[in-house]
Amino acid sequence: QVQLVESGGGLVQAGGSLRLSCVVSGTIFRFNAIGWYRQAPGKQRELVARIDSSGSTDYADSVKGRFTISRDNAESTVYLQMNSLKPEDTAVYYCRLAERYWGQGTQVTVSS
Length: 112
What we know:
Shape: globular
Oligomer: single chain
Structural class: mainly beta
Largest sheet: 7 strands, mixed
């Protein structure tokens, strides 16, 4: 059974940084793309960043230059380093594996 567990969310002031982690159980992690998504109140869930099995990355325009996604296949973990945070980054952040499996989410709140 595949399970994803996010951590690292919290409350931070604008301009601050957070690092999110998503640990994946099961054996399929290294063979699949994994992404970070976010959903703000009243808005649709959106893709923030994605990394495929070869390490190639994609980012939403709104986070380019501020967020960095990375993966550690040995630890079955994906990270999202978030710098220069803005109030509009406030959302629940989810990881998603293989376009199929979701974690439970972690709240990120950026105060102005």
